[in-house]
Amino acid sequence: RGVAMMTTTARVTSPRAAVARSRGTSMMHARDGARAMASRARRAESSSSSQSSSEVVVDNGSLKKDARYTWRGHDVHYERSGDVNAAKHVVFLHGFGVGTFHYRAQLEELADAGACVWALDLCGQGDSWPRDDDAVKELHAQGFQYSIDTWRDQVDHFLRDVVGRSSYVAGNSLGGYLATYVSATSPELVRGLILMNATPFWAFVPNDENSLAYRLAPWKGSLPVPKWVSTPFKAYWDSFRSAENVSGLLGLVYASKSRIDDDLVRRIIAPTDNPNALSAFCSVVWSPKSKMSFDDMLTRLAASDIPIALVYGKEDPWVVPLWGQRLKRAVSRADYYEISPGGHCPAHECPASTNSIIDQWTTYCEAGCVGAPPSGSSDGSGRLIQGNPRNIFEKIDAFRASMG
Predict the structure, then answer these.
(1) Which residues in the chain show pLDDT less than 70?
(2) 160 exposure class (CB count in 10 Å sphere: 0-12, 13-18, 19+)
(3) pTM of the prediction?
């Protein structure tokens, strides 16, 4: 049940024109700074002690790369597709429990459209794990946490020292939270922000060390995992990561059930076979919230000139449209695209629609964000909307926001 693509007439209001001019200036500065970051990235890639990779030239002549580098004791995995000298670089950050494999369609199709596309596995997810037993011992000695702030630091390092240039950063779910965090704290690394059903919250333990809840928390996610935490988790671990449970969880959040197949389930389960997987999972659950709240991140972004696109699956039962509407209100210049039918993971669920929007929107940004943004996906299932409330719950939420 595709939604007809909405056309928009050309309109350039004074605020948008002013932002466009500011964005254009920022992009010029970003291009000037990109050479220095690119130089650092080439040095990082040439260091055999820190990174190993395999490269093959695919049929269309672009370069595909499946690579690894060392960061904080982890053998970090990432993929790259497309010409590294392309003007447009797009970096994808995955949601919890998946990995670079969730972005296979983007690595292929957006690279074919002329972008250099990157996808990163977060530490303790996908194929990024401690490199050996000695590294595990060192992580224990350091009290390493698989926390949102650790992942923020990892993404910052990846953008700065591996990608090596200002890039469009796209994130789904947890990856959207991280993309927002990095954009708010390291804006010089971000050419544009693309959020796909970004979760607006993460973790349970407060970050404020003076709060009662923080002081009462008996463990803050620092390795090693205490026995009283790992033992009960271990009792349910095999059931939690079973094919039946994984398929059931995916069925809850995917609007297009045909996209849930044995290969996807197998790829999600595979990382849980790593001997460090249970410890990483326990650390994730108990590690504190981010040092900066999501609302504060949005406040910073609202004051910045970073272009922002929301690409949201309308039928997501977790990050429902209300959350996209809240984000649009917080950063009014954001371009809000809604895909229907589409669930929590639009990049994997609706790759053609998502890729069409991202390709058009990043091209629009490269041209200085002049005029009206693209009206939607080429297949008509994704369209640009204002993000106005529709049901009673959304209207109540909008009313409460208007009252301050």
Answers:
(1) 1-62
(2) middle
(3) 0.87
